[in-house]
């Protein structure tokens, strides 16, 4: 169904059209001055430029047609020619009623669904996750959910970094530590043992050492390169070992992502494109898109329109190894050919924007991506610590995801204790509520900022139960549930919506109606912060309503049933929007 702004835009557009104006002038927005009207249309100002009448005159003509329509309570003209519109309480109530009984809270699914791949997360096997990976996961998960809710066919792919030099580093580090493993015996013909020779703790301890060694000693780096090359060439012992590294890492990653309520549909990685790389390179060479340069194979990606000089994308290095860009190009090929992708959204750190410019150019120029496929880098800024530098642990290391989850859960427990929330719950439930509150702090604190901005991770601020925070939203959403539960215990149920009994109630109804518009802008601008603003303003409007009207004590039962319906609808909108942000709501708290 249409939102109120959509309905009004259509209606006012008709009137502009019937006055020989472009119907676009009829665009209606939620009013910036609710004291003058619920909605406003500013179209008379640009319309006047195409006419010999003043904007005020035009506004008045349009207003005169609208005013007698039964849905309007008031239609007025203000200032230089703004048209202010307010609906009758009856109309508003019946609209909200319709929303409440409709599917998907009145939000119409797109009539043009497309196949979208969201590439997000991007963790690297064995390497610790850094805050960039955390943001990718949080923002990507939300955009994926929103696109899916809008009716698109969406696939989230983690795009594991499982094929780079770090794999060779680990393999040679293993050889140093456990040279007797059959994996290193060139004459061994298998089968290799099923069980992994390493645990996740081993990998986490090994990687920094391996990487240090390679940085410091040229022969260690050479060994790592050689191992990477042989792995990529398919040496069986290395492949078997590599498989264990990947499996052990993936199991661990899945459990961390799970606690963050982040779910990938595909767990493909850079390695999954390897079999198509040789053919792809051969084709690009044959078609003249790729060429040899100083022993390497490259594709030109610079363009006359560039201000900077975009270097060619290197596909094969002179030593025969393929690179990050090569796998990305092959991944586009795979997604277009095998997954029929029409749009690929890369939710990756802004610092990789040149990489994606190169890869996208190469993909379009070589025809790997037809022009009908949209490749887009939805980049994001950095999560900083109080010192303004990328967030680190207190001792200065990269914060592991597990430790971060632990930290926010502890913080949530502390705050819950202070606010006397969930004090008497069974321990298990209390801890689960704390996890949800903790994750809500983390996610909301992140998503409320426009993704391209850097922001400071300030746990003290993110964790309060007041203001623009995850905990405040959860608290409010749970309040809806608890009112409904208490009502049910007294055998009271939601009923028909009545016209609003106060300005405050009316403001809540209008806020609820904004859902559909906010969802649309969230996706078109790839900006979950729009949804964050929305749910916060919804919470404020709801809490005002809750303070003003004593729902459970109301004597008029029809009024009470109407309010319960409003509480139910508000609760459903919370549930839907928070779910689209990837935030879980406890049953009670
Ligand atoms: N693994 C990469 C990194 O840690 C991120 C991968 C992003 N996705 C992609 N298709 N390149 O930097």
Strand count, sense and closure of the main sheet? 4 strands, antiparallel
Structural class: alpha/beta
Count of individual helical segments: 20
**Would you state the CATH class of the domain at 401-580?**
Mainly Alpha
- Poorly predicted ranges (pLDDT <50, ≥5 residues)? none
Order the strands across the largest sheet as they lie in space. 1-2-4-3
Q: Say how many strands there are.
A: 13
- The radius of gyration is 29 Å
CATH architecture of the domain at 401-580: Orthogonal Bundle
Which term fits the overall shape?
Answer: globular
Head-to-tail CA distance between termini: 34 Å
CATH topology of the domain at 401-580: Isoleucyl-tRNA Synthetase, Domain 1
Mean pLDDT over the residues:
95
The helical percent reads 40-55%
Give the bound compounds.
arginine
